[in-house]
Amino acid sequence: MATSHEQLSDFYKKQERREQAPRQPEHEQTPERVTVEQHDQPASDRLERVAPPPLPTPPASVAVLQKSQQLLEIETILEQDLADFYFKMDEDARQEFKVTGEQTAAKIEQLLGRSRVRARAIFKLIIAWLKIIPGVNKLFINQEAKIKTDKIMRLTSKPPQ
After folding, report:
1. The domain containing residue 1 runs over which residues?
2. pLDDT per position as a tens digit, 49-79
3. Quick check: is 56 in a domain?
4. Where does the record place Basic and acidic residues bias (predicted)?
5. Which of 63, 84, 89, 109 could form a disulfide with 93 if both were Cys (CB 3.0 to 4.6 A apart)?
6. Are residues 73 and 40 part of one domain?
């Protein structure tokens, strides 16, 4: 009986030290319920501690609530003929490709808003974005960038509706 009492007091001392020690930020949340088991005690005497619920994490990129019609058209042009490549990528590459594509579309929209639109700048943005696709030929990237640049430049020649 004395040994189980000593083990129990050692357990409480260790628990107090852990609670008093400064906490390091954790990368992953722990389960909401943590059960501390004592091998010498029956199941009814086990201690149960409820951890606070994990805080909601903000999204990786804050999306604009309302996208302009021009931005939607630019994104549509950029994503044309790339579905096969997109779905062959792993999840991390897909996310990077998507976020970079949205940023590229926003930059292109800003360029189109200027009084003098430079096709070369749009072409370079599209090439930089397409280079994210793994294992794609440089000639294919140039060809797709040229086609997409031409389609985007046609947007500027459309009269406003």
Report:
1. 1-12+30-51
2. 555 556 555 555 545 457 888 899 999 999 9
3. no
4. 7-49
5. 89
6. no
